[in-house]
Write a structure and sequence with these properties.
Distance between the termini: 10 Å
Bound molecules: flavin mononucleotide
Helix content: 25-40%
Radius of gyration: 14 Å
Number of helices: 4
Order of helices and strands: EHEEHEHEEH
Shape: globular
CATH superfamily: Flavodoxin domain
CATH topology: Rossmann fold
Number of strands: 6
Length: 147
């Protein structure tokens, strides 16, 4: 059975909700999905999985979560050759050009690991609604077809 690790960072729960929805969808498609919180995770943990996923919030006008800085920096030095990745994020369009910037930063960081993008990164506005849930389901489907 293919395995996915979903690493999330959250303050108010939206990104954990995104991670939960994606994990449920992946499980339904026969992918064993495990969730962990970013500050409790080392990027080398991804080496035991086929799919590497990050669900992350953006803070302070384009900043990464402070509790995720070590994870972010160590990710660049982690060899994930042969694996797939994608990044999801809940942010707030109120922040204009800084909307979900952490998603783009993680996307770039994954590029240096050797992992391949499984499906386009997904940006979500605040708490996922029906439309977002549909898009998360599409992400899960695309991921499952790569395996
Ligand atoms: C002080 C502050 C700064 C924020 N800065 C940004 C930002 O630059 N870009 C963005 O997209 N969202 C920004 N947000 C919104 C959060 O990313 C958004 O509420 C997100 O859904 C929180 O995720 P969480 O519920 O998983 O903690 C900010 C929120 C706060 C409180």
């Amino acid at each position: 059975m293919a395995k996915a690790l979903i690493v999330y960072a959250t303050i108010t729960g939206n990104n954990q909700m995104v991670a939960d929805i994606l994990a449920d969808q992946l499980d339904e498609l026969g992918v064993d999905a495990v969730e962990t919180e970013m500050s409790q995770t080392d990027p080398s943990d991804f080496q035991d999985y086929d799919i590497c996923i990050v669900c992350v919030y953006t803070y302070d006008e384009g900043a990464l979560p402070e509790e995720g800085m070590d994870f972010f920096e160590d990710l660049a030095d982690t060899d994930l050759t042969g694996k797939y990745y994608t990044v999801l994020g809940s942010g707030d369009t109120y922040y204009g050009k800084f909307y979900n910037v952490a998603v783009d930063k993680f996307d770039k960081q994954f590029a240096s690991t050797g992992a391949k993008l499984a499906t386009d990164c997904l940006k979500i506005e605040l708490e996922p609604d029906e439309y977002d849930i549909m898009n998360i389901a599409k992400v899960a489907k695309e991921i499952s077809t790569k395996l």
